[in-house]
Design goal:
It is a single-pass membrane protein. Pfam families: PBP_dimer, Transpeptidase. The chain is α+β, with helices and mostly antiparallel strands. 36% of the residues lie in helices and 19% in strands. The strands form 8 sheets. Strands 2, 3, 4, 5 and 10 form a 5-stranded mixed β-sheet that branches. A 5-stranded antiparallel β-sheet has the order 12-11-23-22-21, sandwiched between helices. Helix 11 packs antiparallel against helix 20.
């Protein structure tokens, strides 16, 4: 018995109870270490992210849209601004389908809105902001007041204010000013980094698009603290939105109004007026036109969109920057090619005829008999076709194309909204050899008939009214190719980069200028011999429409003759009867408005 161990100690050894405190301590230390590590990870490494998530649950940002900068004419008169629109919205997440009829009936009675319209708008679904439905737009002040008096009764409905683009003159200069539209989801993915919101609007065409960064401004907002129920507890701060900058345009409202009026009775056409000294555009009108306010509406049906975009009259197409056959307004270009080539000098005299045959086709003079033996000045005055056939065919397509390029044709003008501009076409031998843009190379050679047509601005020549105004500015300003523009900004538009000296002989320039003056003195443009009016030089044009329509009417001019301040190009699309009958009176209206403004 004396050699045996105590029973209690033996049992303790075999049961392992002696190790229990150590195991428990180890487990406690392990769990504590894990908790410390987790807290360290949460606090130090992921603290910022979780604080941000918590704030997102606790803080709501109510955005405040910026006011877009205004578009002003050169005298500061407003052409585009912003206006407030009060609109009725529905938040569908706060309303069950069963409760909709009751809310609809109450809103209909209170605001005098047709029930069927409210139902239709609700079926349209949420708008671009992704969380609410537009039930009614542009509410009247009394409707807004009645709603706000009973707003507590309409938890799921709200009246909110939106800032919309507004064009006070409607269709005036629509193609120049452009319009704004909500950004698309695809655009938002790119523009979000630039501060755009999903509810933002962006300039689509015209000046609105070209000067988007200048006009748009920056969003602001109010930070609100909310509880778990979404109820506002307090305001945490306010960040005002930053308005966009106003943009002073080169347009003159008086001239623009005159240009628009000149087009009223025409099926289509354009008027361009610019300052030949620096390229500043004073007026640019196109018909048919559209009302840019259409795109400011918060709710537009597909039928309304289709009516505008699918219209056969193409009201969204700017005729001022689309290309057409120029007819006789092109003859100064042929004159330049003849003189600059050295083959038909300024004092040349050619015998005109009833018609001249090229390639088996007899090309006629417009009077049917010719004008005898004449020089450049009288050829321009009478607009003799057979004179210019001889000059054009005599110098060839290369010389004519070179003259055209010097005057800015077959290229975009450099205007800020040039992404909407056609570069036109000046056909020539190399172009024909390559397939004319629609055939295989070598299958459409340049033929004598092409050269004859090109000499008088037909068939293989298509230019825009804006290009023609730029070219006539060269004759008006003493030989400089200017850059048309719609806003001066801080740019020197008379620098050598934007006002390029044209390689043209003084004798060539002087001859063309005298010829254009004779057109108005006692030629086809005599309708501009007005009493107490500055001397005008210009050229009429009647052009066959190479697409098969009726003739176009043109008139291009500048004034005063000795020291030009304005160039005007008038174009009446598919308006048969001649440039002196239709286009010249259009230009006269703009020139009269210009003369009134310079005299006042």
């Amino acid at each position: 018995m004396s050699g045996s161990r105590p029973l209690g100690r033996a049992n303790q050894r075999h049961s392992g109870l002696g190790q229990q405190p150590k195991v428990l301590l180890a487990l406690v230390l392990l769990f504590c270490g894990a908790m410390v590590a987790r807290l360290t990870w949460l606090q130090l490494l992921e603290g910022a992210r979780y604080r941000e998530l918590a704030d997102e649950n606790r803080i709501r940002l109510v955005p405040r849209s910026p006011i877009r900068g205004r578009l002003l004419d050169r005298q500061g008169r407003v052409l585009a601004s912003s206006k407030l629109s009060y609109n009725l919205y529905l938040q569908p997440r706060l309303l069950s389908d069963g409760n909709w009829p009751g809310l609809r009936d109450s809103l209909s009675q209170l605001l005098n809105l047709p029930k069927q319209d409210l139902d239709q708008r609700r079926r349209q679904g949420v708008g671009t902001d992704g969380y609410r439905i537009t039930l009614a737009t542009d509410l009247k002040p009394e409707q807004v007041l009645r709603f706000r008096e009973q707003a507590r009764s309409f938890e799921a409905a709200q009246v909110d204010v939106d800032v919309l683009r507004h064009y006070p003159y409607g269709t005036l200069a629509a193609h120049v000013l452009g319009y704004t539209q909500p950004i698309t989801e695809k655009e938002f993915k790119t523009l979000a980094d630039q501060g755009y919101e999903i509810r933002d609007r962006i300039g689509r065409i015209g000046v609105e698009a070209a000067y988007e960064p200048h006009l748009r401004g920056k969003w602001g907002g109010q930070m609100l603290e909310v509880n778990a129920m979404g109820e506002v507890q307090r305001s945490l701060g306010d960040k005002p939105s930053q308005a966009g900058k106003d943009l002073l345009l080169t347009l003159d409202l008086d001239l623009q109004l005159a240009a628009e009026k000149a087009l009223e009775d025409k099926p289509g056409g354009a008027v361009v007026a610019l300052d030949p000294r620096n390229g500043a555009i004073r007026a640019m009108a196109s018909r048919p036109a559209f009302d840019p306010n259409f795109f400011s509406k918060l709710f537009t049906t597909q039928k309304e969109y289709d009516k505008l975009f699918a219209s056969s009259s193409k009201p969204l197409l700017s005729r001022a920057m689309n290309a057409y056959d120029p007819g006789s307004t092109w003859k100064p270009v042929t004159s330049m090619a003849g003189m600059e080539s050295g083959k038909f000098l300024p004092d040349v005299r050619l015998k005109t005829a009833a018609c001249i045959t090229y390639g088996g086709h007899c090309f006629p003079d417009h009077n049917g008999v010719g004008f005898g033996t004449i020089g450049y000045e009288d050829a321009l005055r009478f607009s003799s076709n057979t004179f210019f056939y001889q000059v054009g065919v005599g110098v060839g397509s290369k010389a004519l194309y070179e003259a055209a390029i010097k005057l800015g044709f077959d290229a975009r003008t450099g205007i800020e909204i040039g992404y909407e501009e056609s570069k036109g076409l000046v056909g020539h031998q190399a172009w024909a050899a390559k397939g004319r843009g629609w055939a295989e190379a070598g299958t459409t050679p340049w033929i004598p008939e092409d050269m004859a047509s090109a000499s008088i601005g037909q068939s293989v020549v298509q230019i825009t009214p804006l290009q023609l105004a730029r070219a006539y500015a060269v004759f008006a300003n003493g030989g400089f190719l200017v850059t048309p523009h719609l806003a001066d900004g801080a740019i020197d538009w008379t620098s050598s980069l934007r006002r390029i000296k044209v390689d043209i002989k003084p004798s060539t320039l002087a001859t063309i200028r005298r010829g254009l003056r004779k057109v108005v003195q006692d030629g086809t443009g005599s309708g501009l011999n007005l009493p107490n009016f500055p001397q005008v030089a210009g050229k009429t044009g009647t052009a066959e429409d190479s697409t098969g329509g009726s003739d176009h009417a043109w008139f291009a001019c500048f004034a005063p003759y000795q020291s030009a301040e304005i160039v005007v190009v008038a174009f009446a699309q598919n308006t048969p009867g001649g440039g002196s009958v239709h286009a010249l009176p259009m230009a006269r209206q703009v020139l009269q408005a210009w003369n009134r403004t310079r005299s006042s």
